[in-house]
């Protein structure tokens, strides 16, 4: 019997499995699809501290950024500590941006308008200035997830998670309220604990245990350009509006430019946010807005071609915070999902904290802001099982 | 005011032209869009007028017939050549959010539009009339964005060669069979001096015969699938005896050897092709014995891949053809699952130009009928489509791709030409937990590059252990960011 | 008159020239850049991003993107579907990286043999940039 079953072979599940294995636990990872087949496979690979308001998510992001630097030593996936440049459209936005940076307490440099092209030679003129965050980085998320699973904790002298793809969890084994394993289409798997790392589908998995997690899909499109011979965009570059959009509750379409080059040549262009369920229908107007905003940032991009576009579904919680920790309504079930657009960046810290919780250790961060039952009206912890939202 | 056509036809090959002609003869206002500077598609590709060819039909069957249809169409329909389509959308009515199915059905399927004029913005009520917007780039290098709107759409985008990877397949001098054919038919360029033709399927015969007649020294035709040699070629059994005999005669006259159950399994050369390894194959296509053939050019193809990105963009349902290839599902009138959208030709199942033309005619007549025109039934046409479809199915069954081709590959053989992904990387992705073609792509990048998996998609799917999926390519042709940023929009309706 | 021209009874309009990495290449009006290059015995003109591998025509119909060239400073055009116009200045990535097409066009002995047997004796030993890569005997029949 494994100590832990992790549901979901995306980057968060992989990180949970990795750190649990490093803590000496025997881990089985299940996914109904292949490795990194959900939102991980549709991400840009953002590891950002720059876009977080001071608070619990920023604390998580800072912890995670450091862990990514360490995990990069495993090899097997691209990790680029390229830094992020946030640019402000006007003086008022710049003032807000610099105030935010001051409050974040993370390493940053305020960049005056005249120095922006020192960072990004092809940036459009006319921006009021910006803030550069050297800790912002980029990972290739699919390979990162696969590598964390594959390499497990061998380097630490421990075991490797056992990955079983094409296995669908259909329910939970229970002993009273306690979760004692999973039911799957390939048979039951008893386990000491179960981690729900099902990302955007985390609410559905929680519902199988009779607990409510209000995780909804928030669709995002990404444009991919032809491979460029010479890098045109050196850092992660985005407008201050991105920070506002990330924090927004709107169901309607929001777009803000996030532009970056990749080692293999193409430029990636995000980011749109809209709550339209799991609809994959391509929206040309969204692609158009992304293109327009990217060209406004980097006019030279106008002559470059888009060869691909794709969408993914961020796991969105109403308060924009992930769900991390044991569910008091179903002891033995731990959640590690709902990271919205920050799952890649926050994965190592999430896995690290989950492993601490699984081994009874004292968590390195206060987990109460991420409590699974925080959305229940009475927050009693064992309220009526809610319907899947 | 943006003009709204009754019907937009994408593809000016046999299916598109036949469909457009039927629809315009029935009184519809039709626009035909094709990426190429001349009509014909791949099969009826022909020389530009600047060649002043006295016998342009010498290179292929049926060109005169096609050109007569084209001339008839030209005077009746709007023609947009040199227009690459990068996206199709359903717009107008309730369709703005991309959920236009119902609205399209209400407009295009209704019988009460019988007396709609065949001119711009006919009598169909603007508020109920959902439309399709076809987004094009005009000019082969100018790439001017242009939007075309229509109340119905016929997709006749044809197919391209289906290559299989093998060591050296990316050497200069290795061409697809269709590429060699296109050079000859469209530019009068013979692909090489000493040419080997390899692959599977009846298409190899006209390619080899054409090259031989045009002066190439064809060193051999290696048909991986055929067991019986030319004398018992399936074309003979399918009422195509004259055509097959014609090719056989050409090959015999030029002393071109034809070997069934043989294939080129490797290509060699430093910067370009100098020789190939030809293998005798077992029933599963595993090499049994090999020898070397000197050549400067290899033309190879293992069937065809229907170009489905546009119907997939619109959400048209697909089905698996006899060989597992995804194709658009259509009814007897070539209607797709999306109301107002029709498909004909290779996109609905690879079957050749004759079938494509007949399907196109059915589609054009169905569009006209659905838009209220009086179109008498033509049972003979439907029977002809049935007969040719049965023949196409027989050919698919006669020329399956067998799994032993994977044994031709070495660890360092590129599977994806664009991203230069070797077989070893695909295998590594499989070991990392990629259990389908999409996750192989995510982990190892095959299909991420310029061609978006058009060349390697079939092979990657096979290597991932599945049939190829219908391609999801929201951007069907590269489009400049500057153009995407400043799109022309249909006026809002209502 | 070579076989394919005899076959169809073609009497084409007079050829014009385009320049490919500075070398003149003849074009029959209506031919694509790719067809003209191939006819001139130039089999590769692009160098891949990672392996520097030589590439030229493969699919020939605008699908594979192997034959990309820069024409009059417009980058990444498919040579096989870009109709040549008089005076076009074509730049190849092979020239930028000093690989296949440059070697092919320069007609170095080793490359001369491997340029797909295009049989371009006239090309051997010419200076880079000085050879049209044009008049190929036997391959393209012009």
Automatic annotation (TrEMBL), chain A:
InterPro entries: FAD-dep_OxRdtase, FAD/NAD-bd_sf. Keywords: Oxidoreductase. Residues 366-389 are annotated as: Disordered. Residues 3-356 form the FAD dependent oxidoreductase domain. It comes from the Bacteria. This is Oxidoreductase. It comes from Streptosporangium pseudovulgare. The lineage of its organism: Bacteria, Bacillati, Actinomycetota, Actinomycetes, Streptosporangiales.
TrEMBL record, chain B:
Coiled coil: none annotated. CDD domains: GlpA-like_Fer2_BFD-like. The keyword Oxidoreductase applies. Keywords: Oxidoreductase. Pfam families: Pyr_redox_2 (PF07992). This is Oxidase. SUPFAM superfamilies: FAD/NAD(P)-binding domain (SSF51905). InterPro entries: BFD-like_2Fe2S-bd_dom_sf, FAD/NAD-bd_sf, FAD/NAD-binding_dom, Metab_Enz_Cyan_OpOx_G3PDH, Opine_Oxase_asu/HCN_bsu. The keyword Hydrolase does not apply. Residues 5-356 form the FAD/NAD(P)-binding domain. It comes from Streptosporangium pseudovulgare. Transmembrane segments: none annotated.
UniProtKB/TrEMBL annotation, chain C:
Residues 92-126 have a biased composition (Low complexity). Residues 133-142 have a biased composition (Acidic residues). It holds the Pfam family Fer2_4. Keywords: Oxidoreductase. InterPro entries: 2Fe-2S-bd_N, 2Fe-2S_ferredoxin-like_sf. Residues 85-142 are annotated as: Disordered. It comes from the Bacteria. This is Proline dehydrogenase.
């Amino acid at each position: 019997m494994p100590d832990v079953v992790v549901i979901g072979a995306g980057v968060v599940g992989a990180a949970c499995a990795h750190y649990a294995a490093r803590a000496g636990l025997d881990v089985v990872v299940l996914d109904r699809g292949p490795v990194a087949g959900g939102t991980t496979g549709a991400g840009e690979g953002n590891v950002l501290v720059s876009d977080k308001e001071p608070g619990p998510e920023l604390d998580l992001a800072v912890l995670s950024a450091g862990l990514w630097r360490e995990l990069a030593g495993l090899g097997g996936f691209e990790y680029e500590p390229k830094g992020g440049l946030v640019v402000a459209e006007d003086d008022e936005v710049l003032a807000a941006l610099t105030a935010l940076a001051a409050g974040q307490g993370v390493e940053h440099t305020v960049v005056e308008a005249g120095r922006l092209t020192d960072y990004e030679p092809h940036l459009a003129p006319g921006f009021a200035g910006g803030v550069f965050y050297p800790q912002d980085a980029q990972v290739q998320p699919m390979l990162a997830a696969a590598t964390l699973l594959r390499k497990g904790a061998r380097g630490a002298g421990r075991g490797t998670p056992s990955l079983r793809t094409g296995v669908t969890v259909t329910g939970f084994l229970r002993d009273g309220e306690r979760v004692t394993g999973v039911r799957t289409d390939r048979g039951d798997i008893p386990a000491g604990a179960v981690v729900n790392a099902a990302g955007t589908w985390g609410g559905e998995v929680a519902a199988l245990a009779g607990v409510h997690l209000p995780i909804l899909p928030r669709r995002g499109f990404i444009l991919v350009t032809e491979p460029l011979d010479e890098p045109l965009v050196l850092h992660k570059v985005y407008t201050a509006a991105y920070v506002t959009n990330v924090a927004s509750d709107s169901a309607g379409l929001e777009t803000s430019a996030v532009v970056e080059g990749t080692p293999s040549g193409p430029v990636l262009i995000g980011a749109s946010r809209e709550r339209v369920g799991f609809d994959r229908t391509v929206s040309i107007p969204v692609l158009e807005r992304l293109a327009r905003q990217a060209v406004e940032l980097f006019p030279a991009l106008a002559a470059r071609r888009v060869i691909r576009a794709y969408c993914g579904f961020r796991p969105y919680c109403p308060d924009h915070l992930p769900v991390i920790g044991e569910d008091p309504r179903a002891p033995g079930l731990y959640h590690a999902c709902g990271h919205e657009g920050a799952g890649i960046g926050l994965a190592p810290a999430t896995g690290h904290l989950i492993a601490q919780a699984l081994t009874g250790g004292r968590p390195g961060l206060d987990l109460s802001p991420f409590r699974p039952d925080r959305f229940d009206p009475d927050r009693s912890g064992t309220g009526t099982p809610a319907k899947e939202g | 005011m943006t003009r709204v056509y009754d019907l937009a036809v994408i593809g000016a090959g046999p299916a598109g032209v036949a469909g457009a002609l039927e629809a315009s003869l029935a009184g519809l206002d039709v626009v035909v869009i094709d990426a190429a500077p001349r009509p014909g598609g791949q099969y009826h590709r022909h020389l530009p007028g600047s060649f002043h060819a006295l016998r342009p039909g010498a290179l292929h069957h049926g060109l005169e017939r096609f050109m007569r249809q084209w001339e008839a169409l030209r005077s009746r329909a709007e023609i947009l050549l040199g227009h690459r389509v990068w996206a199709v959308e359903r717009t107008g009515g309730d369709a703005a959010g991309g959920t236009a199915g119902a609205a399209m059905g209400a407009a295009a399927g209704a019988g009460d539009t019988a007396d709609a004029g065949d001119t711009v913005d006919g009598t169909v009520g603007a508020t109920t009339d959902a439309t399709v917007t076809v987004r094009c780039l005009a000019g082969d290098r100018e790439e001017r964005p242009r939007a075309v709107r229509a109340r119905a759409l016929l997709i006749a985008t044809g197919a391209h060669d289906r290559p299989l990877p093998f060591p050296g397949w990316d050497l200069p001098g290795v061409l697809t069979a269709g590429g060699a054919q296109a050079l000859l038919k469209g530019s009068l360029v013979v692909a090489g001096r000493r040419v080997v033709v390899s692959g599977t399927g009846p298409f190899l015969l006209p390619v080899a015969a054409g090259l031989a007649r045009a002066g190439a020294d064809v060193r051999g035709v290696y048909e991986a699938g055929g067991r019986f040699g030319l004398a018992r070629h399936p074309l003979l059994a399918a009422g195509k005896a004259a055509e097959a005999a014609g090719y056989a005669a050409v090959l015999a006259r030029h002393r071109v050897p034809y070997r069934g159950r043989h294939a080129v399994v490797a290509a060699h050369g430093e910067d370009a092709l100098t020789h190939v390894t030809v293998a005798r194959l077992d029933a599963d296509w595993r090499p049994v014995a090999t020898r070397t053939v000197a050549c400067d050019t290899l033309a190879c193809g293992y069937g065809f891949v229907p170009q489905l990105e546009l119907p997939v963009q619109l959400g048209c349902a697909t089905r698996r053809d006899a060989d597992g290839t995804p194709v658009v599902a259509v009814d007897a009138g070539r209607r797709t699952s999306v109301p107002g959208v029709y498909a004909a030709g290779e996109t609905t199942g690879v079957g050749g130009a004759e079938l494509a033309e007949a399907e196109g005619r059915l589609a054009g007549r169905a569009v006209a009928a659905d838009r209220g025109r009086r179109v008498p039934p033509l049972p003979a046409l439907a029977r002809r489509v049935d007969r040719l479809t049965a023949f196409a199915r027989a050919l698919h069954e006669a020329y399956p791709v067998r799994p032993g081709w994977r044994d031709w590959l070495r660890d360092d053989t590129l599977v994806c030409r664009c991203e230069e992904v070797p077989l070893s990387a695909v295998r590594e992705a499989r070991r990392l937990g990629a259990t389908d073609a999409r996750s192989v792509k995510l982990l190892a990048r095959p299909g991420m590059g310029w061609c978006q998996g058009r060349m390697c998609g079939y092979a990657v799917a096979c290597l991932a252990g599945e049939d190829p999926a219908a391609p999801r390519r929201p951007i069907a042709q590269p489009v400049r960011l500057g153009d995407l940023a400043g799109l022309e929009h249909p006026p809002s309706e209502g | 008159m070579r076989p394919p021209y005899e076959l169809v009874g073609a009497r084409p309009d007079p050829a014009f020239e385009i320049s490919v990495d500075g070398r003149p290449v003849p074009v029959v009006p209506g031919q694509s850049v790719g067809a003209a290059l191939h006819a001139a015995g130039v089999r590769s003109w692009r160098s891949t991003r990672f392996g520097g591998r030589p590439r030229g025509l493969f699919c020939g119909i605008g699908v594979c993107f192997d034959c990309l060239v820069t024409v009059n400073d417009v980058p990444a055009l498919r040579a096989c579907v870009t109709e040549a116009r008089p005076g076009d200045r074509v730049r190849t990535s092979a020239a930028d990286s000093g690989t296949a097409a440059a070697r092919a066009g320069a007609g170095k002995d080793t490359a001369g043999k491997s340029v797909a047997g295009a049989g371009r004796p006239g090309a051997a030993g010419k200076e880079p940039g000085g050879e049209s890569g044009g008049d190929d005997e036997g391959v393209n029949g012009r």
